[in-house]
Amino acid sequence: MSKRQESKYKINRRLGVNLWGRAKSPVNKREYGPGQHGQRRKQKPSDFSIQLMAKQKLKGYYGNISEKQFRKYYDEAVRRKGDTSENLIDLLERRLDAVIYRLKFAITPFAARQFVSHGHVTVNGRKVNIPSYLVRDGDVIEVREKSKQLAVVLDAAQSAERDVPEYIEVDHRQMKGKFIRTPRLSDVPYPVQMEPNLVVEFYSR
Hints:
This is Small ribosomal subunit protein uS4. Helices cover about 40% and strands about 10% of the residues. The chain is of the alpha+beta class. It folds into 2 domains: about 10-35 and about 45-90 and about 190-205, Ribosomal protein S4/S9, N-terminal domain (Ribosomal Protein S4 Delta 41, Chain A, domain 1, Orthogonal Bundle); about 95-185, RNA-binding S4 domain (Structural Genomics Hypothetical 15.5 Kd Protein In mrcA-pckA Intergenic Region, Chain A). Strands 2-1-3-5-4 form a 5-stranded antiparallel β-sheet, with helices on one face.
């Protein structure tokens, strides 16, 4: 697993958006970028910079995954039948750490990645500690028995910041959920506008 190199809130500042919709985000107070030049007048962005920003937002949202791994998702999305941008979202939403975040078993995607890698999760009864593991329709994801009373899990489950999307079922009393179906872009509860079509354009140059 690649090591995250920067604070998650620095990602927010750099992109100029509250990427995860959190009340703690510094963007809520300072919409300009970090550093001494953060408040300088912005020039009209080029097509390339708009596409790059769309890619950075999507990468950052899923725990700032590496460029190498993100490119693999794009290549797989192209290979599959159907709309490439929708396929890309489907692949990202099937990451086990993303599913744990959607189930509200972790407060952030970064916490979800750590939760999975520390061995707190089972898929269909078997322990899985690979955050990038892709779940399939019908897979049952559960917090291991010894981990169900962890404060971080209970706090995340009770958080009112997010709702669980319709393509996932969850029982917070048993700390168990099921991935039901393929999500479409319109199904995914992003706090900011995501434009996977621009990501496709970026890689198609």
